[in-house]
Each structure stands twice: as structure tokens, then as C-alpha cells.
Amino acid sequence: MPDSPLSDSPYEVLGVPADADAATLRLAYRRALRSAHPDTGGDPERFHAVQLAWELVGTIEARAAFDRGGRAATAEPAHEAWAPAAPKPRRDSRPQARSYGHPGGLSREVYLSLVREWAGRGVTLDDPYDPALVRSAPRDIRHVLADALAEEATARSLANLGIAYTIWHDIATDAAGRGLPPKLDHLVLGPTGLFAIQSEDWGGPVALKRGELVGEVLGGERPIRALAARAKAIGRAARVKPTALVVVVPDDHAGEPLELGGTVRGAAVALVRRSRLASAVREGLPGSPHLGGTEVMEVRSRLQAAVRFA
């Protein structure tokens, strides 16, 4: 199963329906492989995706395992990574950042509500994260689950910033949201500034252009504008001013590890790959002011008094 609920299934990669017979599937694979082969001018990423798709559904055994939700007969079901993870004991004794709130919690609640409503009244869902169920759900429902996973992944990355940083997750705001109760995914405070962060997974590439995100997958959304409105609402309530507005996406959805997009109301704007986020926060963004120790303590006190969780 793909890593994201929004990722194309192997059948979609090969351009066949999920109930295609073996001969049709094999023919589609050969055609896709020829058209994507780098030696004939094809796209190497597409070529790799076609090969992976065939590994997942190219044999009777692999296809049956995939349709049940796993990658192979002996593999663990891939959707276990989609369900809320059980807490794991820490092996690193270094102090972690102070953290408040429940990252991805609201998005998971909304997903569970939407998927049960979509399934219909009287239908019992033994596993709302079952891969076959998720694959068949409308894109807007899969998008909510993808965002929950993105928020949780960001939280894991930010936790290792160290004791100098404080993090709030799932913060309620009075700004407008996309089909969800209005909230800011993460707010990070430390000596390198006050970062308002939105974790996203649109299922495809995005880029910064003239201070806003662009991409076919956005469907008319204006993420930087929405993030700025949420950050402004929180800043107004706490009488603080965010120094950076950051949208973090899966690594393969951004062309550069860190892309800057000017400023909005004095806050530096950036699109950041997930693997680059922690170092970007530690280093600070170009054009984003650092904060002194006394200022960090004052801002933290104001936020602690004003923050409300979604």
C-alpha cells in the first residue's frame, strides 16, 4: 500500500481498474515500463513507480496480499502506520522540547466521523484504517487522514529540537479552515523565533510563487494566506508576533529542501521538506529575527495564557 492515503495505487500507476485480469495487467505494465524508461526519454521517477507497482500486484500472491492490505504475504499490514501509534519507550536521554496538545488529534477525529458517515448508517467498520476502505473513500476524506499523518510526522521531528524550544499542537483559532474546525497545526517557540507551521500532504508537488503555494493538487487553496490568517489570530490573542510562516510537506512534494517566499506581515515564508524541518527551525530562516532569552520567556508566558486547543 502507498505510504500516503493520497498516493496512487499500483492499479492507478499502471492505468488499469482494480479488477483487471492478469493479462490486461501485464500488458499495461509492459507499456508503462516502455514509456517511462529513462533510456527512451522517460521519467526515472515514473519508471521507479511502475516497477514498484508491479512488485505489489504483478503476481497472484502479491496481488492478493496487496488487496488484503499488505505488501506481501509475510509483511505486516501497511495500514498499521496509519492507525494511532502506541507510545514507545525513549532510548535517547537528551532533554526534548516542551510539547503541549495532541498533534493530528482533531484531523483523526474528523476522518473517523467522515468515513463512518460515508460508509452509511448501520454499517459497522471493524477497522476504519483498512487499506481497501481508505482506497475506496472519496479524496477529501483520504486528505483528512493524510493531513493527520503529516501532523504526527512533524511532531516527531520537532520533539528532538531540545529543551530550549516549546511546541504547541492543534491550536484553536478564529480564522477560517478548509473543511475542518479552524486550527493551527503547530506553533514552535525558541531562540530562533516563533514559527507558525502547517503540516500538509496534498498527494503531489507544490512550489512557492510570489509568496503563495502553487500546484495542480491544491484545487484553488491558498495555504500561505490561510496560515497567515491563523497565525495572526493567535498572535492577536496572545499579543505576540510570529516571525516565520512554514508549510511542511513530504520530501518528494517539494523541489528544494527549503524554499523561501518573501515575508507576510514581517514573518518569513517558507516551504520546507519534512526531513529538513528540524534543522530549519534550529538554524532559523533568513530574514526571520532571533529572540533573546528574556523575550522568549515573555512570549512563552503570553502564549501559555492564551493558547486554546482544538
Automatic annotation (TrEMBL):
Annotated segments matching region Disordered: 68-102
Pfam families reported in the protein's UniProt record: DnaJ, NERD
Residue span(s) of domain J: 9-70
Ranges where the NERD domain occurs: 146-257
Low complexity: bias regions: 71-85
Protein name: Molecular chaperone DnaJ
Organism in which the protein naturally occurs: Agromyces neolithicus
